[in-house]
Amino acid sequence: MTHNTLIVSNWKMNFNFIQAKNLVTNLKKIKYNKLKLSNVICPQFLLLPTLNEVLHKSDLILGAQDLHFDINGAYTGDTSIELIKDYNCKYSIVGHSERRALHNESNIMIKKKVKLCLDNFIIPILCVGESIEQRKKNTYKDFILKQLTECIQKIKCPELVIAYEPIWSIGTGIIPKVEDIIEVSELIFSFLKKEKIDKFQILYGGSVNSSNFREINSIDKINGALIGGASLKIDEMKKILTSC
Ligand code: 13P
Questions:
Q1: Is the minimum distance from the CB of 129 to ligand 1 under 6 angstroms?
Q2: Which residue of 42, 58, 65, 216 has the fewest CB atoms within a 10 Å radius of its CB?
Q3: What pLDDT score does 1 carry?
Q4: Domains, the chain, ranges and CATH?
Q5: Which of 178, 166, 164, 169 minimizes the C-alpha distance to 229?
Q6: Which atom of ligand 1 is nearest to the CA of 97?
Q7: Which residue has the CA at smallest separation from atom 9 of ligand 1?
Q8: For residue 3, what pLDDT is reported?
């Protein structure tokens, strides 16, 4: 397990060119501990070429929000790993709950994406997390273990990131209790150890902001955050990055 903090901005479908350029220009000016922190930005695909230029020679790292599981082919509207690599993405989010829900992505499909990333030296950020019903019915642990098993079991994983994002916490302002994040991060940790994966980071995602980041990031098995809404605001990002 790596102890560096990984901050991943998931901009989702936000920002035009000017807004995106403005934010990264300001992000570049923030002084934070670069030895301890990796700062990854995942913009919309069409912003990648421009941001790749703007980020040249900076410490900010580009990531993709998704990718197709095949190398190329008849997949109208999808984006291939080849182009993601061309624009220097080091990471790709895979299996985000919005992709699972709105684009019917299955664990089988997501496993193919994880494999493709690893074969191409892109570090996958695999998202897992339960719905509010599963949390209430107390079936969330089985559900998360099923997601992990079906998405990564028996894959040779030199390095990967798991983001625990409870669906009920995304964009709602509701954060699980610290002990609940601890419980799931330990579940993920032991799963990865059992799979003999040595190099990994576990992130928490869901309504992370500058007021709750520090407490979440201080959890033993948590190494950073996957941030949606707050990642669009420079003041929030400044507070988060400088608190590591
Ligand atoms: P919010 O931070 O807006 O809740 O989004 C979390 C998320 O989905 C990040 O991938």
A1: no
A2: 58
A3: 47
A4: 5-242 (3.20.20.70)
A5: 169
A6: 8
A7: 228
A8: 55
